[in-house]
Write a structure and sequence with these properties.
Blueprint (H helix, E strand, L loop, with lengths): L4 H11 L4 H13 L1 E5 L8 E2 L3 E4 L2 E7 L2 H8 L5 E5 H8 L5 E4 L8 E3 L1 H11 L10 E5 L5 H12 L7 E9 L4 E8 L6 H13 L7 E6 L4 H9 L1 E4 L23 E2 L1
Parallel strand pairs: 2-13, 4-6, 10-11
Antiparallel strand pairs: 1-4, 1-5, 3-4, 6-7, 8-9, 9-10, 9-12
Helix pairs in contact: 1-2, 2-4, 4-5, 6-7
Length: about 260
């Protein structure tokens, strides 16, 4: 079986204890991945009751990175909710519950304490700050290949939310410096999600960096300036959505399921 991004990140974290970059990469993968949360009973609308286990005097919900692993653990059909790790962290924040990921799966298993989930929820919760600053000068980007790759992967998963993006180093009118990711073709409703996903890529890089996300019309003069020095990303075309499917609990990261 091909390893998922979450499995690869967990393997890397477990192979290098104390490596902060590996730990952050694992939590970034967890936030972006879909997990199957084992339930004590069928969901009632957006209200769910997770199955709990106790270990070392603490309680943990059980989640799996595939339906196959969930079925292997339960040995029979069982109710579950498919949701993102980000939604799960938001749901469990402050509840005093940890996460048992892939229990009994050997190297693919890990116990995360309540404080780690609270940290993840806090890390994911801040909204980007809006600004109308105008770039004074633009230069080729100077970010690490790892961070550029993380941005590229996140933009690829944002198919249909924008057309293209340009990354450049920037000096602002107040002489402050950083980087600018300029995005074109993004409707106003998609802009907060795009800004947040790039902000998270920077946060999970473990580096203290300033990367501003701006939204521009394709014919904005700033784009012409960027084309001379910036790294360009082209976002993929969206897949045709299934308009008949009913959203599952936790499928909207801004509306996590409610614990019963």
């Amino acid at each position: 079986m091909t390893q998922t991004r979450l499995e690869q990140a967990l393997d890397a974290m477990q192979a290098t204890p104390g490596d902060e970059a590996a730990r952050l990469a694992f939590f970034a993968a967890l936030a972006d991945s879909e997990v199957m949360l084992l339930l004590a009973g069928e969901a009632e609308g957006d209200r769910i009751e997770p199955e709990l286990i106790e270990a070392d005097g603490a309680q943990f919900v059980l989640a799996f990175d595939s339906e196959e692993r969930l079925a292997g653990f339960t040995g029979a059909a069982a109710p579950f909710a498919a949701l993102s790790g980000r939604a799960l962290a938001g749901m469990l924040a402050g509840a005093g519950l940890g996460l048992a990921l892939n229990p009994e799966a050997g190297s693919g298993a890990v116990l995360l304490g309540a404080e780690e989930l609270d940290w993840l929820a806090d890390t994911l919760s801040p909204a980007p700050v809006e600004s109308r600053a105008v770039p004074h000068s633009l230069h080729p980007p100077e970010l690490s290949p790892e961070l550029v790759g993380a941005m590229d992967a996140r933009l690829a998963r944002a198919a249909g939310l924008a057309q293209a993006a340009w990354l450049a180093a920037v000096t602002w009118g107040d002489d402050s410096t950083g980087h600018l990711l300029a995005i074109t073709g993004a409707p106003e409703t998609a802009q907060p999600a795009l800004a947040r996903t790039i902000s998270e890529a920077v946060l999970f890089s473990g580096r203290d960096l300033r990367v501003d996300v701006g939204f521009f019309a394709p014919d904005d003069p700033v784009i012409a300036r960027l084309e001379r020095v910036a790294l360009r990303f082209d976002l993929p075309e969206p897949e045709t959505p299934d308009t008949t499917a009913r959203p599952a609990p936790g499928s909207d990261p801004d509306k996590p399921p409610i614990l019963r």
